[in-house]
Amino acid sequence: MVQDPAPIPVTTGSTGIFRAAARNLGWLLASRSVLAILSLFYLGFATRTLGVVDFGRFALISGAAQALATFVGFQTWQIIVQYGVEPIQHGDTPRLARLLRLSAILDMCSALVGAALTVAILFAWSDGFGIPPDLMRDTLMFAVVQLITIRSTPLGILRLRDKFSLSAVADSMTPIMRFVGAGAAMIFEPTIRGFMLAWAVAEIVTAATYWIMVAKSGDLRLLASGRGSWQQVRDENPGIVRFSLSTNASATLGLSSK
Predict the structure, then answer these.
(1) Burial of 94 (C-beta count, 10 Å sphere; 0-12/13-18/19+)
(2) Whether the predicted pLDDT of 27 surpasses 50
(3) Residue 2: inside a domain
(4) Is residue 67 in a domain?
(5) Which positions ≥6 away from 111 have C-beta within 8 Å?
(6) What is the per-residue DSSP string for 85-135?
(7) Cα–Cα distance for residue pair 122/64, rounded to 1 Å
(8) Phi and psi angles of residue 184, each rounded to the nearest 5 degrees, phi first
(9) What's the CA gap between 125 and 118, in Å, rounded?
């Protein structure tokens, strides 16, 4: 059953704020722990199955796809958290709906731009990436999946609603599905294609889980109801353009340091 959007829980006093922060930190650490533990297994499966050369190609393909998604994407979850609190506090539901809709549109535009860049890059420099012709289509599909499963908007919605537990559950789907998929690839398709398929399925399941969580909270319906122009959203949220560009630049700079 779809519920109406829940208000942000109000914590009073320093003790309540500290407990809320500790609880949310605990959920984040739990999600990271699942990733750290299971990654030892599914990366081990991939390394043992593919060998050094093919695993290197697989790592290059997956890393490049993730880097491209980060490069073209806006950190819309930060936009939602930054500008979503005020309309909730004032009970301005239409304003919040317009903000959420804009964030989703930004993610969609990022995916489209990224897909176009992926096609251009792969066809221009496929030899430099060491991608053989028989893997071109699979690599392109894998990169597109990485882009269309950008889940920054639902992440921001769940964090805005203080539902860190739900976002932790959704995040945990990535390592769980990679673990299951890597095991299946070892048995049924012990190739780069098999592991790319496993990783792609993990991304799809994770993104779907995020949106299911948002739908159950009622915020998907709220997002769909958002009506208004870009000018209106900009006027309602002073500095949103500068903030959006700065978060994208910060993510890109952080990527260059890794």
Answers:
(1) middle
(2) yes
(3) no
(4) yes
(5) 72, 147, 148, 150
(6) HHHHHTT-HHHHHHHHHHHHHHHHHHHHHHHHHHHHHHHHHTTTTT--GGG
(7) 11
(8) -65, -40
(9) 10
- Tokens representing 123 are 């066809």
Kindly report, residue by residue over 69-84, the tens digit of the pLDDT.
877 778 899 999 999 9
**How many Cβ atoms sit within 10 Å of the Cβ of residue 30?**
16
- Report, in this order, helix, strand and coil percent for the chain, each rounded to 5: 85, 0, 15
Q: End-to-end alpha-carbon separation of the chain, Å? A: 43
CA count, 13 A, side-chain hemisphere, 46: 27
Q: What does the pLDDT read at residue 223?
A: 92
Structure tokens belonging to residue 26: 């605990």
Domain containing 92 equals 13-256
Q: Are 35 and 174 in contact (CB under 8 A)?
A: yes
pLDDT digit string, tens, across residues 207-253: 999 999 999 988 999 999 988 888 999 999 999 999 988 887 877 77
The amino acid occupying position 223 is: L
How many domains does one find in the chain? 1
Residues 6+ positions from 120 with CB-CB distance below 8 Å: none
